[in-house]
């Protein structure tokens, strides 16, 4: 019985692991920390799995657990120093797909997003994942209006970083 | 001007292929690993705290000398008071333990970010109440011990009489008061500092993020 549940869980997580990797990418600065956070999120997902009823999609349910773990539960074990190699692998931009200014802009934007606070990052993450404001406000526990206001502020912040 | 975030969004959703890919077995192995979340840390710390204060208040029972002294000082008549006091303390500890576990259980990662933060802070608050309760008890017991020392203990009463004859009674009281105040102040200060350190480090990030969410709602 328990084995079945384990198998079911690992399979679902394996198929949806990109969501967790994306959260880890946003909230950590090197590969060790990335793996560390991934592991903690996996443990928390597994702990909460018995409560997952299947009335929502597995991926939807994952967002909450992953963000809660990254923002609140996770304890950084060591000071993380961003390593050049890691950044360039994760945010690799294919040169032939973009023109130079766009590429430069994207690089700057990713850098700017990584410098945001924990809450702002969560908002941007959900936004980039194409969640609507209702889902964003539900996940964070703030009102929809406030989610919009906050998002607009972040947009302005990013814009000033890009066009000083 | 085009919305920069839309540009980012397009790129973000293409990112998949650059992300690490873990195998079934790598994920499976992670299920066997221990969590190192702050909830777990909080849980262990509060268990240590409970144990510390319970041991501290139970200490006199194991110390025959203290118990004997207690009986000598208070006489047999105060036994009922002593038993009632002990029972009450145990009940209060049990109530705290109950609420502590209940509030731990209430921390659910499936909740919204704000709710998770609130339930962690609530748990922390229960531990704080428990410590405050203990500190108040320590102060009351200290004051009560001094009081009974001066009203029941023969040696002390004799000493007081001599002091009264000397005319230095006032100075003695001042000195006593100063020692008690300093002692209590030192102890509370020490415990406060300890708490600032332990919880300050553990919950610094949580408090910062929680305040940010709170500020949004105003």
TrEMBL record, chain A:
GO terms for molecular function: sigma factor activity. This is RNA polymerase sigma-70 factor, ECF subfamily. Belongs to the sigma-70 factor family. ECF subfamily. Keywords: Sigma factor, Transcription, Transcription regulation. Residues 14-79 form the RNA polymerase sigma-70 region domain. It comes from Pricia antarctica. It comes from the Bacteria. PANTHER family: RNA POLYMERASE ECF-TYPE SIGMA FACTO (PTHR43133), RNA POLYMERASE ECF-TYPE SIGMA FACTOR (PTHR43133:SF45). One of its GO terms (biological process) is DNA-templated transcription initiation.
UniProtKB/TrEMBL annotation, chain B:
The chain crosses the membrane at residues 41-62, 82-101, 130-150, 170-195. Keywords: Membrane, Transmembrane, Transmembrane helix. It comes from the Bacteria. This is Uncharacterized protein. It comes from Pricia antarctica.
């Amino acid at each position: 019985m328990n084995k079945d549940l384990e198998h079911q869980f690992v399979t679902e997580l394996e198929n949806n692991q990109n969501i967790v990797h994306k959260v880890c990418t946003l909230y950590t600065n090197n590969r060790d920390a990335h793996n560390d956070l991934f592991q903690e999120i996996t443990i928390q997902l597994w702990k909460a799995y018995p409560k997952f009823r299947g009335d929502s999609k597995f991926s939807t349910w994952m967002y909450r657990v992953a963000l809660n773990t990254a923002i609140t539960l996770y304890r950084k074990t060591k000071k993380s120093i961003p390593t050049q190699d890691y950044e360039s692998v994760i945010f690799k931009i294919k040169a032939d797909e973009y023109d130079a200014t766009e590429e430069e802009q994207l690089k700057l934007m990713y850098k700017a997003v990584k410098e945001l606070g924990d809450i702002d990052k969560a908002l941007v993450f959900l936004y980039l994942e194409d969640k609507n404001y209702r889902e964003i406000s539900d996940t964070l526990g703030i009102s929809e209006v406030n989610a919009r206001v906050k998002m607009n502020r972040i947009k302005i912040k990013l814009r000033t970083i890009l066009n000083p | 001007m085009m919305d920069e975030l839309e540009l980012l969004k397009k790129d973000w959703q293409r990112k998949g292929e650059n992300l690490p890919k873990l195998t079934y077995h790598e994920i499976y192995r992670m299920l066997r690993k221990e969590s190192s979340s702050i909830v777990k840390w909080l849980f262990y710390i509060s268990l240590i705290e409970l144990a510390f204060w319970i041991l501290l208040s139970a200490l006199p029972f194991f110390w025959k000398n203290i118990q004997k002294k207690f009986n000598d000082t208070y006489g047999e008549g105060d036994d009922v008071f002593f038993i009632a006091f002990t029972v009450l303390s145990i009940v209060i500890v049990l109530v705290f333990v109950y609420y502590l576990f209940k509030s731990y259980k209430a921390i659910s990662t499936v909740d919204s970010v704000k709710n998770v933060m609130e339930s962690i802070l609530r748990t922390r608050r229960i531990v704080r109440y428990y410590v405050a309760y203990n500190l108040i008890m320590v102060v009351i017991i200290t004051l009560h011990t001094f009081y009974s020392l001066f009203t029941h203990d023969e040696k002390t009463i004799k000493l007081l009489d001599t002091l009264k004859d000397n005319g230095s009674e006032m100075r003695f009281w001042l000195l006593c008061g100063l020692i008690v105040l300093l002692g209590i102040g030192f102890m509370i200060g020490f415990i406060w500092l300890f708490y600032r350190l332990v919880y300050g480090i553990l919950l610094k990030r949580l408090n910062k993020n929680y305040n940010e969410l709170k500020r949004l709602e105003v």
